Amino acid sequence: MKSRLILTACAAALLMGLPAASPAMAQDAVTTSAPAGITVPPLGFAKRTLANGMEVYTARDTSTSNVTVQVWYRVGSKDDPANRSGFAHLFEHLMFKATKDFPDETFDRLTEDVGGNNNAFTSDDVTAYFETIPANHLERLIFAESSRLGSLVVNEDVFESERDVVKEEYRQGVLASPYGRLFSVFLPQTIYQEHPYRRTTIGSIEDLDAATIEDVRRFHATYYRPDNAILIVAGNFNESQLNGWIDQYMAPIQNPDRPLPVNDVMEPEPTGPREATFHAPNVPLPAVVLAYPTIPYVGEDRAALTVLDGILSTGESSRLYRSLVYDQQVAASIGSSADFSQQAGALYAYSILAGGKTPDEGIAALTAEIARFRDAPVTDAELAEAKNELVASALRSRETIDDRAVVLGFALINGNDAAYADREIAAIQAVTAADIQRVANRYLTPERSITIRYLAADDANPTSQQTLNVDAPVKVADLAPVGRLFTLLPEAERAPMPEVTDAVSPTTPTVADFRLDNGLRVLVAPKAGLPLVSARLSFDAGSADDEAGKAGLASMTAALLTQGTASRSAPEIATQIEALGASVGAGAGPDFTNVFANAPSDVFPQTVALMADLVRNPTFADEELERQRTQTLDGLRIALSTPGPVAGQAAGRVVYGDAAYGAPGGGTLTTVAGLSRADIAAFHAARYRPSEATLVFSGDITPDAARALAQQAFGDWAEPAQAASPAVDPAGAPLAPRVVVIDQPGAGQAAVTVALRSVPRSHEAYFPLTVGNTLLGGSFTSRLNQEIRIKRGLSYGTRSSLGVRRDDGLFTASAQTRNDAAVEVADLILEEVRRLGATQPTESELTTRRAILTGAFGQSLETVDGLGGAVAGLALYDIPMSELATYAASVEAVDGPAMQAAFAEHLPVDRASLVIVGDAAQFIEALRAKYPNVEVIPLTDLNLDAAALK
């Protein structure tokens, strides 16, 4: 994927808090019965097929000022030739380069530069490309997609550079993540015996190195053709105008006169149970997996298996969470997935074990839960909960034009029928308890089971290697000949880029603002569209308010809100939330705690009622504290085995030292172990108070309805007798810069972070620094990404952040790279930070960054959660609500001198600290030559409780 979030299994999923009710109404407000019914509107796409075989799906939506253009190609990692695993994914990267009519990175110019975005992904059966842009740029994107389909330029330099980028993606997602090898490599290669699904999508370093430019060109000639493509357009457009552009640009592209390679391997039925054990470096806690081959996407039992999977692992009322995490406490983290691909499928359940638990204990617990599905029907309550969760999730997955196009794309790729996406809702609602027991006895039997143990490597058990030289149906010899080679034409000979049409103006909602008699501020941002509503209740209670030596107190308090009230136990809370189809959570940041919920509008009053109970009447029972403590400590152990999170936590200590902002917000192994119930109850009593709280409603709700809900749930909430003092100087005094290396022998990558003290959110330099940060590392076309990824192939991606807070923030610029390149990457980051304070950006750079910021801001307001988050963010930092409407003007007002001056004054490179986490043996001498005073701290000696880090 061009910009992918790699799967990393982390046991620190503890930020689940919930919206609730006043004590008098709490017990009556929510029951475990199903909601009256959630209506999921149909996708509503129109279809036509061009003469060249390209399928075109369109859906007009005038509620947005944007349009999404997506092209889905029926080629995925299953089509990688033998000994060329990762080929489809590698080619995905190359598709963002030049065509005969425009140079490299033009897709970023056409999207990011005008306030849009672009991305792509590769999976087993598909490679999909998608852009979202202001609607008046639609013709340009149709032209650009046709150009890269019909005249892509693939040259040696681009091929070598992008192959290096993919290698860094592999190192980051597979090697540096403690569970990357398990889920990306070992799981598919164990589940599938014959099918090419057994190869990981990203491939292997060896197969990537084996690829040649001729292979790549032949791959494009084979699979990138109109009759193997699906064009999806959704948003604000004129139908006849769009059809004309498609006919102009897409219809003339011809298909090659040869069929696609045949690839229809039938995975054999299991002949008996199988087991496998794998070892990997830096595995903090063992993991176990139970997997079962099932059916492809079009299988008749897909709906029943989907509901079974929901009952198994969705939410804290699920069977796996309730049994393995809550009751037995054998697992730090659990999960399951019912994967249905085009030609085969599997269901697997996993457990990352709690500290001190053995793989055999984990396997026994998983096995027992799977057996329950075979031995007895699920309960009516479980069935209703799972259906409500799935249907509500389907509703949320259709909230934006991008979402709806993606849902359609997967239905077309996996089922070759757009109606699958809409029929799936009815199929789920029709599933019975007998159906679930039947499919469990058909597919989830001991004879079909695959048991995987994933353990830490040691001297006796060296690291398990990825299986190489895996055969596949498609051979390199089966690929089409290269055909015509394209080169970038001289500018005068290129097809002209289409002009933009008249802009469609976005709108921002009017926010209602009032207070209840007890001081609670209520903000309401109505949004037309789907029947969804979001609530967000925020308090001045962040990690900066943690007492000295009690880091993690605010986070633990938030985590425990959902773990029991005076009238509900933790399991009852989880059951009631999931019965509503609601999504709920709570978490603490540096300055604030947020409790939030999203629910279908027909059950939103019950959700708000539950929210009040959670916030007002938590019991913080000792046994619940011990459960959360154990889960948090296990989560910290996982985080401390991963270079990126370690670098992030160390950077806070380096910049802030012993000040409140310096302590890790989630706590440390020492401080979390020492938190008491009295600490948590006192923190809640002093800091969760209506006069210091803000409640934001957004979505399908009117101000009058919101006022009534707020009054009913929170109107009688009395102010606590004693208020806590606000945090004093949480950023502390500025400190001298440091260079710190945290040595993790065997790390798959090095994490490089440059850190400086930034400005508060309310500072006048916020907008100049925000524009400058976007130029530095806030987008794919940023300077850091250009220098480190695009030019040199040293990282999968770079990023930077102002990290604004109520007091001075934490600016960071970071990248992950191979260990031996850590010093080079550090130098590049520091140089780019220096350049921003020393020279002015070009007007072109400024224009682009402004568009990126205003476009991203507008798109964030298109979901109910995004809108609510934006409103809450303004309120928490005491920013006027008028900034919703003036944000774009504030960004546009930033000029080159202001940006340069802001960086020179507030983020000068001579105040920068450098933190590198990785295998120090591979880079320490080169680093020490530049920084003789570098501090080297073994990861095993790292002490995040102290500013010295040791």
What would you note in describing this structure?
The chain is built from 32 helices and 23 strands. The chain has 950 residues and is α+β, with helices and mostly antiparallel strands. The strands form four sheets. A six-stranded mixed sheet has the order 1-2-6-3-5-4, with helices on both faces. The chain has a six-stranded mixed sheet with strand order 12-13-17-14-16-15, sandwiched between helices. The chain has a six-stranded mixed sheet with strand order 20-21-19-22-18-23, with helices on both faces. Mean pLDDT is 93; it is low at 1-36.
Q: SS-based structural class? A: alpha+beta
| Tertiary shape | globular
- Report the β-strand fraction as a percent range: 15-25%
Largest sheet properties? 6 strands, mixed
- Euclidean distance between termini CA atoms: 38 Å
Low-confidence stretches: 1-36
Average pLDDT value?
93
Strand order of the largest sheet: 1-2-6-3-5-4
Give the number of helices. 32
Oligomer: single chain
